[in-house]
Amino acid sequence: MPIPTGLTERLGVAHPIIQAPMAGGGDSPALVAAVSEAGGIGVFGAAYLAPPQITEAAKSIREKTPRPFGLNLFSPLPAPVPPRAFAPAIARLAPYYTELGLPPPAAPAPPTYSFDDQLAAVLDSGAAMFSFTFAPVPSEVVAAARARGMLVAGTATTVEEALAIEKLGVDAVVAQGSEAGGHRGSFAQPFEASMIGTMALVPQIVDAVRVPVIASGGIMDGRGIAAAFALGASAVQMGTAFLTCEEAGVSDAYKEKILTSREHETRITRAFSGRPARGIVNRVMIEVGDEVPGFPLQNALTRPMRTAAGKAGRTEYLSLWAGQGLRLARRQKAGELVARLVAEVRVTIDRIGG
Amino acid sequence: MPIPTGLTERLGVAHPIIQAPMAGGGDSPALVAAVSEAGGIGVFGAAYLAPPQITEAAKSIREKTPRPFGLNLFSPLPAPVPPRAFAPAIARLAPYYTELGLPPPAAPAPPTYSFDDQLAAVLDSGAAMFSFTFAPVPSEVVAAARARGMLVAGTATTVEEALAIEKLGVDAVVAQGSEAGGHRGSFAQPFEASMIGTMALVPQIVDAVRVPVIASGGIMDGRGIAAAFALGASAVQMGTAFLTCEEAGVSDAYKEKILTSREHETRITRAFSGRPARGIVNRVMIEVGDEVPGFPLQNALTRPMRTAAGKAGRTEYLSLWAGQGLRLARRQKAGELVARLVAEVRVTIDRIGG
Known about the structure:
Chain A is of the alpha/beta class.
């Protein structure tokens, strides 16, 4: 990679290529380890895991590579207002459960662990990077992770969000453009106001903050990485490009769906989790719509359906998170992808340096 | 500019920087001429002009510069279904007319000229470039313009639209990302499906078509231009960056609004014209909403209001078209902007080539 940035030096990695955390089964310890082993940095999405599972995942990654890796959590959020009754939300989902031969969905049980419990596991994990999504965390959280030597980054979708994240004392801000797959990290404005394309978002955040900026959203190959550097980013974070890799945690049917979908076939939806996220349009997204209980209630209500559908390769019931660059996704090993990206960045910079 | 592309050679211009057509008063013969004089290519938005006005505008540009310039038209569209009665649409707008001291809006008169009439004026204008927006034109239109030696480009917002445009025999495709200000060029899918960010859109279109691609949407400075080249574009088209230039046709109040707005303060609206377009949120956009007569009916209904508001500097009544990169807009002369862009591209490529 032609640009060693402050971030690569700080992390002790060769390439400023971050594999985006994809909580809920998109990533896997094998994917994270493969990316780190190839000289990038894999980040494991630990948001939905209980503390012992986080410890287990970190151990599994560490067994596969001695290189730096990262962990991501969702910031603690105010508890959503539960619907007066779960019956309508359950009734809406019940037919899918029947179709999949599952018992009907049940009102979600209260969580058995807190963000602080998850954080404690992260702090003891040996991870070199900690990132958070959905909101600012208390600045003590940032300080605690930095005290363990971790590089800390938070996600922003507008300039004002980036400034709020920077104020916490982070090492870097992830600028998430509207192209990005999966959950929107928006918190300061309604997400509709925060759908800023990566091309516009990155330079405006770069100009506003002093810390390095990690560009994400629609970056799929070396051309995108070089473009992000041109815009002023110090690193890129890529999700969809890694989701079709052999080591990714999703089903083959999901990967095939990414590989055969077109750039205009993704949409922002609340149907699966209660929070806006970008995925490929499918039956459940259309039928369930956006009038659902808040996150994480809806997420819990749909989880057994998604788990069963993933195993059965039934993509019409899955949250098919994917970004708008999906025509550029390829089947490959994650290490091959990282090597290809590094080569492509060189070629791209040579081409435009012509 | 470090990259002479096929397009610059074909056009006989120094820099692959196109000033986007901004019909309805955003551009001006002075702006177009200043951009062309500085080595880019200015494109005048002639969509709303009668043939003699097109001839007049081209003459005015030619008097100011001997260099190549372009003209843009809106493609012929099926006539919109007129509302059963215009009364409700008129009633909704009437208070604004009263506030501005104008006679109440009237049902629009039928057009006195056709697309073919406009095209005839364009063909005789001496323009070096002809671009079209909103739909494919008949391929004879493309052939006629090319027969006059014009470089012909059409606008696309998805890969499939780009392929449809390429099939007409054009010289280039304009890839309009979701960041772009002003009207969406979408035609093959509903515009909601076609809100693809520039970072994702450009490389996917570049891979799909054989003709050169002109990137647009969120490109505001040399970083954005270098990024567009990295993505594979052969040129860029920039609107908002030129809209705050001294020579632009909009009021000072409009320019000031761009210079003081934030990236999350634009939205897609049909309120002003009946077609989706991106502008800065204001009172009329919010109050009128999207349930309006189709284009160009609503456009005609709101025109006297917008014209009067522009003269009076009353931005709450204006269609404040602007893209998502607006924090990067500056007050300057258009020639200074072009020179600055060229210098910035060099600096950017040197930086990432580091």
